C-alpha cells in the first residue's frame, strides 16, 4: 500500500482545545466526504482528527490486501492519537466509519458517538451474492461509489469483490458487538438511502445498551448525508448532541467559535 493519496483524499486535522472528534469516512470513500462536516464541527469548537481507513485513498487494488483486523486496528490506533491530544473524545462516523465507531465504543470508553448512514447489515441480495461471487471472481471489480463517479467526492469508483466480502465481515462482527456499546449514541440515517437500508438505524438504537441514545431518520435524503442538501441539518444535529455532552464542562463564558474555512 505504497501508492500516494489521491488529491482530496488525504487525512486532515484541525486542532482544538479540550474536546476532540475522531471523524471517520466510509467504505470506498475518503476524507473528502467528511471534510465539510469536519470544518463545521471545528467551527463549533471541537478538534478534528480525520484519518484514512486502511486500503483507502490510494488505488482500489490496495483493498485486496486489507482484512477486517486491519480496519479495526487502524481506527483503534487513531483513537489513541486523539486521546493523546484531547481530554474528551467523541467519534463521528459516516457509513462504515460509523460501524467502526460502534466497534470502538464496544471496546473503549468514549464521551459520545454519532453514526451517519451506518450499516450493521445489508440487503439480503448483497449479503447472499457477495460471498458467492468472492469465491469465484474475487479480483473482479464492481461499481461501488456512485458519488465518486459523479465527481461529488474523491473515492474508489470500483472495488474488488473480495473487499466487499471483507466489508460484510466487518459489519457482521460489529453487529454482534452492539450490546457492549454503552456510550451515548446518536444514530442518523435517511429514508432515501439506496446503499444502506434505513432499517439499520432503529436496529442499532434498539441493540446498543446505551442509557442515552437518540435516533433521527431524515425524510428523503441520500446515503452521503455529509453532502448537501442534508449537510446543514446533519451538522446541526451533531453539534446539538455534542454540546449536550459538553455542557458540564462549559463555564459561564461563551464557548469559543472559530470562523473561516479550510
Q: Total number of β-strand segments?
A: 9
Q: How many helices does DSSP assign? A: 8
Major sheet, described briefly? 7 strands, mixed
Q: What's the multimeric state?
A: single chain
Average pLDDT, all residues: 92
Low-confidence stretches: 252-257
Number of domains: 1
Widest sheet: strand ordering: 1-3-2-4-5-8-9
Radius of gyration: 17 Å
In CATH terms, what is the architecture?
A: 3-Layer(aba) Sandwich
Helix fraction, binned, reads 25-40%
Strand content: 15-25%
SSE series: EEHEHEHEHEHEHEHEH
Class derived from helix and strand content: alpha/beta
* Straight-line N-to-C gap: 28 Å
CATH third-tier fold name: Rossmann fold
Instruction: Give the CATH level 1 class.
Output: Alpha Beta
Looking at this structure, what is the CATH superfamily? Alpha/Beta hydrolase fold, catalytic domain
Shape field: globular
Describe the protein's architecture and organization.
By secondary structure, the chain is an alpha/beta fold. The protein has one domain (12-249): Alpha/Beta hydrolase fold, catalytic domain (Rossmann fold), CATH 3.40.50. The chain is built from 8 helices and 9 strands. The chain has a 7-stranded mixed sheet, sandwiched between helices. Strands 6-7 form a two-stranded antiparallel sheet. Strand 8, helix 7 (200-207) and strand 9 form a beta-alpha-beta unit. The longest helix is centred in the first third of the chain and has 18 residues, at 68-85. The protein is globular and about 55 Å long. It starts with 11 loop residues before the first strand and ends in a 16-residue tail after the last helix. The relative contact order is 0.17.
